[in-house]
């Protein structure tokens, strides 16, 4: 039969430390800037990306 599970943090073998607030702030800022850039590029050349117009047709 199986033995008992590991003792300690609720029986789970992995302990994840809390994230520092500075890292969370930078992660949120970088994620937001990524989405702003993607939406900006979609606005500028989204039709070419979706195949609705050719980029060489001016």
What does this structure look like?
This protein is mostly helical and 58 residues long. The protein has one helix and no strands.
Short description:
The protein is built from one helix and no strands.
* Low-confidence runs of at least 5 consecutive residues: none
Structure class: mainly alpha
Helix content: 40-55%
Beta-strand residue fraction: under 5%
Biggest β-sheet strands, sense, barrel: none
Radius of gyration: 24 Å
Shape, please? Answer: elongated
How is the topology of this model organized?
Layout: H1 21-50
Can you tag this structure with a few keywords?
single chain; 58 residues; mainly alpha; 1 helix; elongated
């Amino acid at each position: 039969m199986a033995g008992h599970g590991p003792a300690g943090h609720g029986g789970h073998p992995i302990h994840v430390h809390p994230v520092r607030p500075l890292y969370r702030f930078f992660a949120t800022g970088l994620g937001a800037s990524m989405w702003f850039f993607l939406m900006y590029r979609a606005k500028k050349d989204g039709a070419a990306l979706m195949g609705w117009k050719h980029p060489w047709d001016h």
